[in-house]
Structures are given as structure tokens and as C-alpha cells.
Amino acid sequence: FTMELVDRINQAAKELGMDGSIVDLAKRLIDDERPQLEDAYLFSNTSDNEHSLFLAARHIQLEGLASRFWIIDGSTEYGYPGYDGWRERFGKLVGYENIGRVTIPPHVQELSKLKGLHPLNVNTQSESQSLVDLAVEEDVHFLYAVAPEFHLLRAYMTLVSEILHSGKDISVFSFPGASLPWDEVATHSQGT
To answer: What is the pTM of this model?
Structure first.
């Protein structure tokens, strides 16, 4: 982060009536009002946690909060089944026609290569960069960012940072994934 970006984030938080603390931001992300939008993005996750996102997205759809759901098309080493796998399972809940593909654009692929990663590597930053590009292409100005609660703050802040960095007029609202059973072991990108 640059200091200019940090200052812009803090100013935006103050304009929203927040004290700027990480606790205040986390509370706001979970408890904020839910406007009716058209679009929601599901941050990639492992098969163990995908149900959290699918259930949250189904809730979004049933409440009329969004009708179009975006999923990244890329690969990971940590267990994200990819666009085709998610579309197959998720489409049964929300309708296949309501699912859109987010491709990783060439400039994001180049950044991944510079970091020594596969060009189609999916991570929070490459997802956010790709989503900003898609939002510009598809004329999306408002959307939900859906992630499990343990990943929501990081996913949201990364996406907001990429939006601010792009200078585009895109508003994003967070939506936490549904809770999963606490007594089950689940693997995610940082381990169990």
C-alpha cells in the first residue's frame, strides 16, 4: 500500500462514520445494510468451503439482492476446483444462466509471471484485478463481494484497494459466506 492509498481508505471510512479501526471496519463489513444490486462476485475457495459461498449467494438471490453471479476462471495449487467445477455445482442452486465467467486478463497474467506464478494463478489480488477489469467491460458499478467470514476482510480490502488504484467508479458491498459446521475439518489456501 502507498500512503496516498491508505489516506484515501481512511478518508472514505471517516465519511462513512467509522472510527478507522480494523475492528470497526470488520463490524461494518458483516453488519452493513444490504442494497439491491444486480451483481455479486464469489471469491474462490477450496471445495471444503465452497458451500459457504454457494449458500450465501443463494440467500442473496432469494432476497432479491443480486441476480448475476461472477466466478473466476483460473487455477490454484490450493484446491479451488475452477470455474467449470463451481459452475456445475453452483448452477444447480442459482441457475446456470445467472453465472458469469471472470477471465484473468493478459496484464494480470503478466504480473503473476513476474512473481514466479502460473499466469492463470488465482489469488485474492489476481481475482480483484480481474474483477475490476470485468466491471469496467460489463459496465458494473455496484456489486457484492462474497467470501467466507475468515477471508472477508482481506478479500474486501484487496478489492477496494484495486478499485481505488484503478480510479474507476465501482462501489462494492461485502457479504459474508454462510456458517459451516464447526466440528468439521476444512482446508483452505493457508492450510487447515
So the answer is: 0.81
